[in-house]
Amino acid sequence: MKNLFFGLISLLLLCACAHDTNTERSHSLLPIPQEIQATKGCFTIRKGTKLYIKAPNEDKSAITNALALWKELLEPADEKVTGGIAMEICDKVECISSPEGYTINVTKERIDVKATSAAGLFYATQTLLQLADGGNAIPACTITDEPQFAYRGLMLDVSRHFFGKEFIKKQIDAMAHFKMNRLHLHLTDAAGWRIEIKKYPRLTEFAAWRSPAIWKDWWFGDRKYVEEGSEGAYGGYYTQEDIKELVAYAAERYITIIPEIEMPAHSEEVLTAYPELSCTHEPYKQADFCVGNEKTYEFLENVLTEVIELFPSKYIHIGGDEAGKASWPHCPLCQKRMKEENLKDVNELQSYLIHRIEKFVNSKDRQIIGWDEILDGGLAPNATVMSWRGTEGGIAAVESGHKAIMTPGGYCYLDSYQDAPHTQPMAFGPYMPLEKVYSYDPRAEIDSTKAHLIYGIQGNLWVEYIPTEELVEYMIYPRILAIAEIGWSNPSDRDYAEFKERAIKATDYLRGKGYNAFDLANEFGQRKEAQNPVEHLATSGSITYAENAPYSDGYKAGGERALIDGVCGGWTYTDKKWQGFIKNGIDVTIDLGEEREITSVAADFMQMCIPDVWFPAKVTISLSNDGENYKEIAEINHTVVRDEGLSFKNYGWSGNEKGRYVRYRAECGPQRGWLFTDEIIVR
User: Fold this and answer.
1) For every residue of 618-636, which 3-state class applies, written as one string?
2) Rounded CA gap, 481 and 437, in Å?
3) Is 91 assigned a catalytic role?
4) Whether the Cβ atoms of residue 133 and residue 28 lie closer than 8 Å to each other
5) Catalytic option among 100, 133, 157, 189
6) Which pLDDT tens digit goes with each residue over 215-264?
7) Which of 350, 362, 441, 530 has its CA 20 to 30 A from that of 310?
8) Residue 200 in 3-state DSSP?
9) In 3D, which of 192, 306, 304, 165 has the Cα closest to residue 248?
10) Catalytic residue chosen out of the listed positions 161, 184, 266, 355
11) Quick check: 188 and 160 in contact, CB under 8 A?
């Protein structure tokens, strides 16, 4: 990484020395290329500079449009000339194995670009534009570059809140600049159906509209849909002409749009518009399709037929996540299907639907992607898994010989807080700063012999709490830049401190283009309590957990000594510093080793109501000299109420007492959710 970084810096110095009028400019590329070597001087684009492109006409047009910064200066040429820019698609390019790879050679006299596809030439133009940094001088250098992964994606949820086609185009422009190549549109969900299907007009006349507009008000309200055009109706959808326009716009920037049509779950809007497709045949009652009903397959196949005609992507995303399956065990049609197909449980019933839909999609010469729940009950033969509930789904898919796209929530969910929560707009998930995203390696847990089956990486933006275009961009940028670099660059070349410098410059570029990017340069940062270990009386002692109140294996933090190890938690319960408890709360006893004078006992708790993390309703603190007879020194009661966002509360006592054993108990409130604490500090 240091060699690449110094190479980039030297481009600035060499170019500045070559031209007296040059102002100081940044040449920090993002994503960073595989190899770059600075040479002396700059190539300057002037009026009449020749541009030769050897590519099919439609690609030639796309490359020319990508160079619009110099539109008034460049002059198309039918053949190579001595001084100018030559861009060629070749049968083979030395040291390049990916069709998206390219080489660039910039001298004072000319620029030569070679690739084996038009996509490679396009990505080379993005590199040239970044090197020029808004000017006309491109520093002399040689670059050999290609991506690590074939799939480098962004998922945008347009169901919970709807965003128009011009906004989607704007995001496509940014993605292309940073060499991303897949836009996954989450088009259907309970909150609204967002694509015109001519055979089923109620999907857009009714299921695409709701009141009120803000998702959380609707979701925690009556969850009703309304007719298009009615008073207060919020929503929208893409017409089929809109989709064609978006697909063409993305294709000109070598981005493939992948549509997602949810099944069998997250389908309340469909099952209210067409209740005969649910198990109960009643509107507003079901979220899951009736898998035993033949009409379900007729509907899904008709919808997918129109979707496939609109989207030329190899993959069609069919969702598959979070099916409740509550009605299936009691539905006569579902039970009949299970008996006929010899299915042992409802997981296999879901798998039956996924297999059947896959066969249909394969018959159209396409393939399916699904969230990692499609593994449950048996994975369809040709399916690709999108691993979101951690990395386990991707690992399981790869182990069974299937491709996986890695998008684990702990690293790739952009709806999480990107800075200290009290400084940020409300978010859905825990603290996910740029540094955390950048630390992810999609192949880290994969056997080297199967690593080739990791097809790529994707950042996901769910928009339940993101109702405006400005907030969408704020949450995406700059974290998607980390996804872009992970997807493109060599893992051994990654250094966060250096990347952050480039990301700050990239966000400055984005702001200049009208994007509402997070201010990375003025990041608040990690919770101060988590930045340094804390010494207190209990760190040299021991701790015992009551048998009926163990910590969760899923959130064990540092294990048996987590609450007295001197390590305090950060802004998120997923940072492996907060210990989690469910059901019976917390009941621990700390042995200080000998009787000590005690002036305070305290612990921090966090609350984040959306994932069911709550403050305790009651904390009791007791002391003992013999471990049997305890004196209660504090009872702290708290009325637990739902709030928005993330908050912290300290439950503690201060005074003057003596004791050897400290018992700390925390009880759940009526919500009966999770309790998280990081350290019981005894002084």
Assistant:
1) EEEEEEECCCCCEEEEEEE
2) 9
3) no
4) no
5) 189
6) 999 999 999 999 999 999 999 999 999 999 999 999 999 999 999 999 99
7) 350
8) coil
9) 165
10) 266
11) no
From the number of C-beta atoms within 10 Å of its C-beta (0-12, 13-18, 19+), residue 57 rates as exposed
Q: Which residue has the tokens 């549109």?
A: 185
Buried-exposed string 150-184: b where 16+ CB fall within 10 A, e elsewhere: bbbbbbbbbbbbbbeeeebebbbebbbbbbbbbbb
CA distance 332 to 410: 40
Please tell me the distance from the alpha carbon of residue 352 to that of residue 434, in angstroms, as a whole number. Answer: 40
pLDDT tens digits, one per residue of 42-55: 999 999 999 999 99
Nearest alpha carbon to residue 403 among 340, 452, 344, 333: 452
Distance from C-alpha of 235 to C-alpha of 166, rounded to nearest angstrom? 16
Q: Domain 2-145, what architecture?
A: 2-Layer Sandwich (3.30)
Look up the CATH superfamily of 528-682: Galactose-binding domain-like (2.60.120.260)
Fold of 151-522: TIM Barrel (3.20.20)
Which residue out of 205, 322, 445, 667 is catalytically annotated?
322
Domains 2-145 and 151-522 share a fold: no
Could you confirm whether 519 is annotated as catalytic? no
Amino acid at 263: M
CA angle 476, 370, 409 (to 5 degrees): 40
Residues forming beta bridges with residue 637, ordered by sequence position? 618
CB-based contacts of 453, cutoff 8 Å, min separation 6: 397, 398, 401, 402, 403, 404, 446
Tokens 């990654």 -> residue: 494
Of 471 and 583, more confident: 471
Helix (H) or strand (E) holding 475: helix 469-476
Q: Is 189 a catalytic residue?
A: yes
In the numeric block, which tokens belong to residue 407? 């998008």
